[in-house]
Amino acid sequence: MYIFALILITGVQSRFVSKHEEWIPPPFHSDLEDVYFEKNFESVKPVYLKRIPRQVQGVTNTNPDGSSNWIIKTPIAGNDKNVLSGVGGIYGVKNGDFNAALAGLSLDNLHGHSASITGKHIKNFGNQLTAAGKLNLLHNDRHDLSAHAFGTRTFPNNPMIPNFNTVGGGVDYTFNNKIGASLGMSHTDLLKRTDYSAMGNLNIFRNPTSSLDFNAGATKSISPFLPKSNWQPNFGISYIKYF
């Protein structure tokens, strides 16, 4: 069996304008954006299947510049409670080319916990190594509350640019599998930059094999290198289909 998820997300992304602009290519300015996208291929909630689906999962979304991102997740080993999967993906696909490639491992637990480690190569820039984890704090028939965190080490190709870290995390809440909200934050000390994200989610339709959702929210970046730090809107429609 396999699972294919199609995510269409349209919105406004804030751009990082500073002396560092030339060596941080879009759309990789915000690690929060990657975390939000990659969360879309997490396991189906236990409320439906009562087990972890040992299936191939695929997810794609579009960027404002017309490019797209693709990720595939393939189970390697596991049991009824835990599944270890291989993860691969490409980012910024457009006109037969792409901006970055990702590969790694992900461990998912029946109770909603997960951990992953991934490496990403960004063309004409360098490499990134990211460790991420999610802890499910509460789950019952009406409420689902999780916390997630990540740390990214970036290794630029340019020897004049030092290696640097980005750390972040957030919380995700869903009520009655219908209405949800997410708060997130990340910080890159080298750039003196902090990114904030506040998102809401409304499920329009869901059954054991598909889901249609409307997402809306805003992001904000604060840095002495930014001329201003206004909240920028971010919204879209997502559709996921399981086979």
From TrEMBL:
Entry GO CC: extracellular region
Write down the InterPro entries for this protein, in alphabetical order: Attacin_C, Attacin_N
Domain Attacin N-terminal stretches:
57-121
Q: Does the keyword Secreted apply?
A: yes
- Which domain of life does the protein's organism represent? Eukaryota
Give GO BP annotations, semicolon-separated.
defense response to bacterium; innate immune response
Locations listed in the record? Secreted
Record's keyword annotation contains Thylakoid: no
- Which residue numbers delimit the Attacin C-terminal domain? 124-243
Pfam families in UniProt: Attacin_C, Attacin_N
Which UniProt key words apply to this protein?
Antibiotic, Antimicrobial, Cleavage on pair of basic residues, Immunity, Innate immunity, Secreted, Signal
For this UniProt entry, which residues form the secretion signal?
A: none
User: Which protein family is named in the record?
Assistant: Belongs to the attacin/sarcotoxin-2 family.
Protein name per UniProt: Attacin
Origin organism is Leptosia nina
